[in-house]
Amino acid sequence: MADKKENTAILEARSPGERMLRRQRNLLVLGLVASMLLFSWLKIQTDKVSRTRVPGSSIIYLPSGKYLKHMTFGYSSLVADMIYLWAIQYYGTYEIADRFKYLQHIFSIIAELDPKYVDPYEVGALIAIYDAHDPELAFKILDMGLEKNPDMWIFPFQAGHIAQMNLKDFERAREYYRKAMEIPGAPPIVKRLYANAAYRTMNYQEAWEMWKEVYETSQEDWVKEIAYNHLYRVKSTVDVEALGEAVKKYRERFGRWPADLGQLVRAGLIREVPKDLDGKDYVYDAKTGEVKPARVWWKR
Fold first, then answer.
1. Measuring CA to CA, which residue among 123, 141, 109 is closest to residue 42?
2. Of 112, 110, 113, nearest to 123 (Cα)?
3. CA distance linking residue 195 with residue 226, whole number of Å
4. SS3 149
5. Whole-number mean pLDDT of the chain?
6. Distance CA 40, CA 244 (A)
7. pTM for this prediction
8. Rounded-to-integer distance, Cα 44 and Cα 102, Å
9. Chain segment 168-196, per-residue pLDDT in tens
10. Contacts for 133-141 with beta carbons within 8 Å, 24 or more apart?
11. Are the C-beta atoms of residues 181 and 159 closer than 8 Å to each other?
């Protein structure tokens, strides 16, 4: 009889904790079921819309990520993954002509649900640039990725790549590479791309300083060689432009091309005739007034 009372007391002592644990499990199951029901409803609603009759209209049934997140019961990352997988399938359906109309909306939903989910930003930008042919939209998606993940250099790096390779917009590329370069953990190539973009935008001093830093800090010979060749390019570009201007002024003053570059010094147009980074003279054609480097900058 005493043992029975003791067992009853133990069970009663444990029951509050067990009830709490049971309640938590029930809430967890309820949340999972609710999430599944939510997306079942979303699928039913989207399937009601004929994709061939009204292309792209199914996307409007998804609310903004800010509000949708409250409906996921803590499963926002799972929901983001589901929408992402759906989006890949949707944007791969080429029969839907206007499927890109809501591209920014759908990927912003994913970003709101799971801001640290990197893949959707990258894939969304790729879809925007190569399928939708909308580079500005690609920039918006990557900018959104950087805003929500300021420690991720990959987003400005990819934006810089798009600006450089797809648009040939080296000014924008330079700005994006600068942002990437300033984020800890960015690979060394970012500095080289930044230096190249600076050169292409005629920021020669900036390009010189960056290539000089790359040359002085790199431990790899092949990188040093690349940096040296670019330093040669920067210096020869600056020198050739200055010599070319002096040659034109000489012709305006004397009515003829100078016989050699030394005449520019004697005429007081330049202080001295510069040499290239290898210590060699620039090539001058007295018949045409053309000045050019002694070698092609990328050949050694």
1. 109
2. 110
3. 12
4. coil
5. 86
6. 72
7. 0.77
8. 19
9. 999 999 999 999 999 999 999 999 999 99
10. 134/100, 134/103, 135/162, 135/163, 135/166, 135/167, 137/100, 137/103, 137/104, 138/162, 139/163, 140/104, 141/104, 141/107
11. no
- The pLDDT of residue 70: 60
Are the C-beta atoms of 289 and 280 separated by less than 8 Å? no
> What interhelical angle do 76-91 and 103-113 show, nearest 10?
160
What's the burial of 151, exposed, middle or buried (CB within 10 Å: 0-12/13-18/19+)?
exposed
Looking up tokens 């994709």, which residue turns up? 51
Residue 270 CA to residue 213 CA, distance in Å, equals 29
Q: For residues 86 and 115, is the Cβ–Cβ distance under 8 A?
A: no
Q: Nearest-CA neighbor of 207 among 188, 227, 222, 189? A: 227
- Give me the phi and psi of 193, to 5 degrees please: -65, -35
Rounded CA separation 83/41 (Å): 14
275 φ/ψ angles, rounded to the nearest 5 degrees: -110, 160
Q: Cα–Cα distance between 150 and 97 in angstroms, integer? A: 35
Q: Count of alpha carbons within 13 Å of 121, Cβ hemisphere only? A: 27
Say if CB 156 and CB 179 are below 8 A apart.
Answer: yes
CB 107 within 8 A of CB 141: yes
